[in-house]
Amino acid sequence: MRRGRSGSIINIASLNAIQPTEGFAAYCSAKAGVAMLTKVAALELGRHGIRVNAIGPGLIHTPATAPMTAVPGLEAAFIAETALGRAGEPEDVAGLALYLASDVSSLMTGQTLYIDGGASLKKYPELFSFFGAAGQAGAEPGPAAPGSAASPGLRKTRSTISIHCWWATSQGKSGSSVWGGS
Predict the structure, then answer these.
(1) Is 27 a catalytic residue?
(2) Is the pLDDT assigned to residue 144 strictly greater than 70?
(3) Taking Cα atoms as reference points, which of 142, 138, 131 lies closest to residue 65?
(4) What is the pLDDT of residues 26-60, one digit of tens each?
(5) Residue 179: pLDDT over 50
(6) Per its UniProt record, what Gene3D superfamilies does this chain match (predicted)?
(7) DSSP code at position 106
(8) Structural domains of the chain in order of their starting residue, each with its CATH number
(9) How far from the centroid of its chain's Cα atoms is residue 67's Cα?
(10) pTM, two decimal places
(11) Taking the alpha carbons of 108, 111, 115, 116 in that order, is the dihedral positive or negative?
(12) Nearest to 54, CA basis, from 64, 65, 40
């Protein structure tokens, strides 16, 4: 965004910014950080006419969630904990992003909007019941190693935080930026 022009920054947080789940300490903490970054950036950039908001999706059918939803019973457990009884689609998130980028939301800044089918009203499924052992430091649910049993297990991970921002100006220009670190 050029100096003197208003615009909108849209960060992607997660339902996990406000709803913890076992085995996802790094992810939940990172997404809570995105929600707070959104508030701070809104304070700092508002004087320049730049609005900053975030989207906090729940379970959305994407290539990133496909391995998780392939675990027998896990998607059903998530859906059972939603008020609307369904997972989201990418178009659901895109519609909210269009709203936040548009002038219709010109008075909104510093907010994280949760698009989760009402999952934030209930509880998160108990993931360890789907993945076996619990309480291993530094482990998160994930697919079993090649050549191991067919059922998912725990895998060691290295925490990486990345922030993906969509931006749009009131003149219709848009783009995205990704920052990452570990």
Answers:
(1) yes
(2) no
(3) 142
(4) 999 999 999 999 999 999 999 999 999 999 999 99
(5) no
(6) NAD(P)-binding Rossmann-like Domain
(7) T
(8) 9-132+139-181 (3.40.50.720)
(9) 16
(10) 0.73
(11) negative
(12) 40
